[in-house]
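Protocol step 4 of 5: obtain the predicted structure for the target chain.
Materials: sequence only (see below). No template structures provided, no constraints applied. The aim of this step is simply to have a reference model before the mutagenesis design in step 5. Sequence pasted as it appears in the construct record:
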Amino acid sequence: MHRAHGRRTPDRIRAMPLTNPWLSGAAPTRLLPRADLEERILNLLSSQNMAVIATTNRDGSPAATPVRYFSLGFEIFYTSWNDSAKSRNLRRDPRVSAGIFAPLAGQASSRGAQLFGTARTICQGPAELDHWRS
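Step 4 output (structure tokens):
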């Protein structure tokens, strides 16, 4: 919490009511081993089906779009119309970020991951399209 002029007021922070009691636990004190972290990310990717894809508009501003996805390992796939804003943005600049998260359930903490990479268009023929539509 900050005052209007920007100085911290620690005494006021302690006096504020805790609206999310499950967030009051101890913060992690060590990094997860890479294998454990990757396993958690893969579990998250395979248990969700919605992501927010972030691309860059022509003027440099961000564009974030919710999409339904499926994953194979650390790669995510989604469909998009060729003339959609996100498709046009990715043709011009293929850098992309995807945010995937599992919403809060009761008093459990939320889980999420942000993936960064380069997007590419996969053009499918009729046989592949029929497979994915079924």
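Step 4 remarks: DSSP finds four helices and six strands in the chain. The longest strand covers residues 95-102.
Proceed to step 5.
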